[in-house]
Amino acid sequence: YNHARKTMFIPFPFPHAQLSAFFVFTIMFAVPLLMDEYSNNIYLGALLTFLTVTCLAGMHEVARELENPFRNVPNEIPLVKLQALFNESLIT
Question: Which among 19, 32, 88, 89 has most CB atoms closer than 10 A?
């Protein structure tokens, strides 16, 4: 519990988050140029570019989601309500 509480109250370093976003943005433009030089086949280069950029952008999105794990988003499980129902069932 204490480790989860620390994760919730200690903010993620803002400069690190901005550098990560800038890195992903830079990769989106640099990888196609590099893949053009790397592969002789245009279809292979396009496929490798798509996979590389998609994987890096996906990892960035996962990191953004892990940055604030306890936020209240409408699509998440209603834990407060479920905990209240569980506590009520224990009492009765």
Answer: 32
H and E: helices and strands count for the chain: 4, 0
Cα 92 from Cα 88, distance rounded (Å):
6
What's the maximum distance between 2 C-alpha atoms anywhere in the chain?
Answer: 71
Which of 27, 28, 17, 1 lies closest to 66 in space, CA to CA? 17
pLDDT at 62 over 80: yes
Q: How far apart are the first and last CA of the chain?
A: 27
pLDDT band at residue 64 using 50, 70 and 90 as cut-offs: confident
Length of the chain: 92
> How many CA atoms does the CB half-sphere of 41 hold within 13 Å?
4
- Is 52 within 8 Å of 36 (Cβ atoms)? no
